[in-house]
Amino acid sequence: MDAPSWNYSVRYVDPLRTENTHLASGQTIVTDAPTDNHGLGQTFSPTDLLSTSLAACVMTIMGIHVQGKGFRIESIDANVQKTMASSPRRVDAIEV
User: Fold this and answer.
1) N or C terminus: fewer CB in 10 A for the chain?
2) Residues contacting residue 61 through CB under 8 Å, at least 6 positions apart
3) Domain ranges (residues) in the chain
4) Please, which residues have CB within 8 angstroms of residue 8's CB and are 6 or more apart in sequence?
């Protein structure tokens, strides 16, 4: 079996922060734990990225679909609401 070809790297860089790198482009995203979970809340939390990725995925699929039919989407906006649960702490619901 061949060794995996990694797409991303994730590094724990500060207390409750990570640096996530897209290896093909070198682009990075930093995450920070939210203030209600011992973080500074200065940027997206990992669960924020999980939640907003759902909307981004839907929009991208819509764009691919209409592009294949010769159309172009000028603009799409979405608002995302994430609801957390505890014991254990987890995403309970995502509304787009």
Assistant:
1) N
2) none
3) 1-44, 46-96
4) 20, 21, 22, 23
> For 68-90, what is each residue's pLDDT tens digit?
999 999 999 999 999 999 999 99
DSSP labels, 5-31? ---EEEEEEETTEEEEEETTT--EEEE
Query: Which tokens go with 88?
Result: 């254990």
pLDDT at 4 over 90: no
Predicted TM-score (pTM) of this structure: 0.86
Q: Which two tokens stand for residue 84?
A: 């957390």
- C-alpha–C-alpha distance, residues 13 and 20, integer Å: 10
